[in-house]
Amino acid sequence: MSISQVNIDIFRSINDLGKEYNFLNPIAIFMADYMLYVLALGMLVYWFTRTNKNRMMVLQGGLAFILAEVLGKIAGTLYYHHQPFAELPNVNKLIEHSIDNAFPSDHSILFFSICFSFWLVRRKEGWMWLIFACIVGISRIWVGVHYPGDVLAGALIGMGSALFTYWLVPKLSFIKTALVKYEKVEQSLLPIREKTENKNF
Hints:
The chain is 71% helix and 0% strand. With 201 residues, it is mainly alpha-helical. The protein has a single domain (5-186), classed as Vanadium-containing Chloroperoxidase, domain 1 (Up-down Bundle), CATH 1.20.144. It is elongated and about 60 Å long. It starts with a helix and ends in a 12-residue tail after the last helix. Keywords: Hydrolase, Membrane, Transmembrane, Transmembrane helix. Residues 61-166 form the Phosphatidic acid phosphatase type 2/haloperoxidase domain.
């Protein structure tokens, strides 16, 4: 399908920044390609703090991502176009990417579904995660693999899915039961040492 001129103009304004400020390109490449490892590490850290609040948050984020991916695939059947570097001349392409349907942005779906889930539960540091999600979205435009519309659609799908799982997951008793059973197994394998008071004081 044809891309709107506004979408192309905004893409050009961001993507051309890589030509003008090429010293920022390594940062854009890292955010576009490798920030997902930071997100995965963050989820692991939250999970192994071993608090119910954090674990429910991680579960909500994971389920939001799954839901958002399904919705994203459905959206991709309704609207289809290739990556900017495959459709436009003189694109500043900074990373390798196959040519397929670029709508919506999978990276935006991933980051906004999980990072918005973090923000809903932990507002204080949640802002940091939301900022990361926005930077990742912009970086995907910067490196030439997505139009702004792809990123915006992915962000909206991700945040909508996060809101839904934030509302739904705490109501599902089988998830709470499964989490309790998991924690019993984890406690038997990785017991938490209880602090004991020194009776000499």
